[in-house]
Amino acid sequence: MARDPGLEELMREELGDRPGLAEKSMFGGWAFMLNGNLLCCARHDGMLIRLGKGNDGWALALPGVIQMLSGERVMHGWVRGGAEIYGDDALRRRLLDAALAYVESLPSK
What we know:
Elements: H1 5-15, E1 21-26, E2 29-34, E3 37-43, E4 46-50, H2 57-60, E5 65-70, E6 73-81, H3 83-86, H4 89-104
Antiparallel strand pairs: 1-2, 2-3, 3-4, 4-6, 5-6
């Protein structure tokens, strides 16, 4: 799958220069890790955001946000949003803040 350098840059700017943040190729896109835990991913078809099981209901209620699928398997706690989602600065920030709050609560790997 093709990467989306523009989305990668938007996410990089939002996440800033924080300790423990790393990047690598994953899921056919560009993944952002925090303290060894997967946080989010930028792909050609949108952004993937890790909110944690049971924490994704509010995001799924937003128009344009859908459950992440891996093949046919539902990835509970993960959501996906296309350009209409990541192009909205406030919504992108809200999703990334929620992902950071969840992943920061996990033990480092």
